Amino acid sequence: MQNKIIGGRFQLKYKIGAGSFGEIYVAEDLKCQKEVAVKLDLPKDRISQLSFESKVYSILEGATNIPEFYWYGSAGKCNAMAMELLGKSIHERFTQCNHHFSLKTVLMLADQMLSTLEYIHTRHFIHRDIKPDNFVFGVNDKSNQLYIIDFGLSKKYRDPKTLEHIPYNVYEELTGTARYASINALRGVEQSRRDDLESLGYMFLYFLRGFLPWQGIVPKVPKQKNNEILKMKQNTSIEELCEGLPEEFAKYLKSVRHLKFSAQPNYSEYRQMFRDLFQRQGFVYDYHYDWDEIHALQPQNSFRRRRGSIKNSCSCLTIQSENKPENLNKRIPIIHNTRLVPNYESKNRKIENQNSNNIRTPRGRGGLQIRVSKQKIIPTKKVCPRIHI
Question: Where does ATP bind (predicted)?
Fold first, then answer.
């Protein structure tokens, strides 16, 4: 596939990922002479998950934390999607930091993740696979900007015109990743906004602790692993999960677990709770994360727990954000103390729906029809042309 030209525009350079879904390549956009990511699905798929995912990106694009979508179409026996090339995932950064993040880093991530999920939910989608691998950072001057990716399992949870919510239902199979899945998702209950937020809560604990109690379960019957994880999640109290952590994390998890199936989450309340904690700790919202440090971090507000003990120290070494040395310490400019948080929320709220077309969810589980919005985005600088489906 190397050097093959996709869609008459994108020349494949080298493969950077592969899985059951297909393959991901770095490609050159021949129109703009810049690198992009091209995702190829497996041939002969009866229903193309990539086709669905490309339409979701088309609906969501334009927001700060959503990658730019360029093109979708046929590539021989495969389908292909071209989008913005991004950098390292939270999972990779977490590994680089010896499986521990400081409180400051977690709170900055939490603030951005909550706003990102709120935006997706206001656009009538749920993600259904919230995990560290699906949050990634940009490259070059966007190396400290967080993005969410992989909408192959996402679903429309309400009709955009009537706001009618999908009905409550129960299935046998889990959609998502068991480690971070909500209790209801593991039970097979139809997912809604509350489940994305509960998964986010488990991620916060994982970042601060370095592990979750249900990791590494090896059941006697392999097919029973999800059931074993469910039992442990049900039997581990929130107080035990959050022992030694600031009380805000227990409050958050209790709140999202008690949400009703179709309830509207109070995103601003969750954000403000974590922002208040951020301010009390005296942190500065400078987008300076743990992995930006070349030297070992000074012990501060570390809540890593090693299977029964809580340690108040951590050691993280930075690595270069990209292969090019000049990108080592590039980050978004520091925000003045007069404003604690970045202004990406107002940008996300300005995106409007226009010209709609209907598509259907590929995983026929009672999902509503999807309306693809053709959004008019006025760039402030020269950008590559995007081909909309």
Answer: 39
Q: Which amino acid is at 26?
A: V
Name the one residue in this structure whose structure tokens are 């604990």. Answer: 205
Residues 199/131, Cβ–Cβ less than 8 Å: yes
Three-state DSSP class for 280?
A: helix
Task: Extract the tokens encoding 6.
Answer: 């996709």
Which residues are catalytically annotated? Answer: 129
H or E stretch covering 357:
strand 356-359
CA–CA distance, 170 with 173 (Å, rounded to integer): 9
Among 139-153, 302-316, 341-355, name the most confident range.
139-153
Per the structure block, which two tokens stand in for 214?
């249900």
Q: Phi and psi (nearest 5°) for 5?
A: -100, 125
Structural domain boundaries enclosing 143: 90-311
Q: How far is CA 251 from CA 41, 117, 131, 239, 245, in A?
A: 41, 19, 21, 10, 11
Binding positions for ATP are 39
Binding site listing: 39
CB 303 within 8 A of CB 208: yes
**pLDDT tens track for 368-381:** 333 333 343 334 44
Confidence (pLDDT) at 374: 39
- Same domain assignment for residues 251 and 296: yes
DSSP, residue by residue, 204-236: HHHHHHS--TTTT---SSGGGHHHHHHHHHHHS
**Among 2, 30, 5, which residue's Cα sits nearest to residue 15?**
2
Instruction: Decide if 357 is inside a domain.
Output: no
Q: Identify the domain boundary among 56, 84, 112.
A: 84
Predicted TM-score (pTM) of the model is 0.78
Classify residue 367: in a domain, yes or no. no
User: Could you give the CA distance from residue 110 to residue 362 in angstroms, rounded to a whole number?
Assistant: 30
* CA pair distance 375, 389, nearest whole angstrom: 12
